[in-house]
Amino acid sequence: MKNTVSPDWRDIPAALALLTRLPLPASLARHFDRGAQAAWAYPLAGVAVAIAGTLGALPLLAFGLPTGAAAITSLAAMILVTGALHEDGLADTVDGLWGGWTRERRLEIMRDSHIGSYGVIALVLSLLARWFALTSIWAMPGVFQAIGALITAAALSRAVMPVLMATLPHARSDGLSRQVGRAPPYAAWLAVLLALVIAVICSGSAALGPVIVALLAGLTLRWLARSKIGGQTGDILGAGQQLAEVAVLFALIPG
User: Fold this and answer.
1) DSSP secondary structure of 138-177
2) Is the model's pTM score more than 0.90?
3) DSSP 8-state code for residue 182
4) For position 98, what pLDDT does the model report?
5) C-beta separation of 135 from 129 below 8 A
């Protein structure tokens, strides 16, 4: 496929192939030559993940089971569809940023496949936070309102990733993030615009708060990554998605 500097519809299956474990036809999933130029489609991959989360929750709600149980199956479905890709990034990022005293040692820890105390704590807190938020969201009076909230969180949190890719240099000379490349500015801006449109369609005026907290989460992690390791890695991108998702879900909890 020709590697152009503009959006291409084949970026959508490329984004799905990178960010999910969905069984895509090989003819669609093979377009990795686009690399980071496909980052504009990451929010659409988020919509697919949210649909999986919805399908995980609706059967339990239909049988009248508690929303807490539906939140568990919803969360499990989303983790299954993504292969815990972002959760792994969160754990490695927290282990590295807080477990090392130098840039080199932090990057070394982040590369290590073993999980440390900081990573375990981060994962537990993230899972509990998302379960708590989803329990409240699935208790919304209208099921479509809850589905809209889930899609909003999935799309906005994945728009943070292209922004980090575009505004931070690579922290190391190899790894998945280096292989994918840095997102060009148009891909980052288009991802943000696409996520905003999805959020407004799905959550209406209630999308303002989630947009703000997603931005704050992304900026906070960007500052930490820049100051502690000098840039971004695939783990940083995954952590950004996780932090933004937690923030957006909490912002969408009905008052």
Assistant:
1) TTSSSHHHHHHHHHHHHHHHHHHHHHHHHHS-BSSSSSHH
2) yes
3) P
4) 95
5) no
